[in-house]
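Re-run with default settings, no changes from the original entry. Doing this only to confirm the output is reproducible before filing.
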Amino acid sequence: MEEVTSTTLHQFGSGLLIEIIGVDERGDIAVETIEFEVLELEGKIVTPREEIPSEYEDQIRATLSEQSYSISDK
């Protein structure tokens, strides 16, 4: 994705989804979704169910932090 235009957190079932929307190299809309498992509901601690793409890590951490979630170190 060449340019990220929005990063949104969605509750989905017992987990969370982070949806990253942007524009790719050809000018087309691109969407990337990362799924998280909630490890501790009250403490709002989550862990990704797959590796977080390094190019989106800052946006993902910021979006989680805005909603008081943190990523587990496990």
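DSSP finds one helix and five strands in the chain. The chain has a mean pLDDT of 94.
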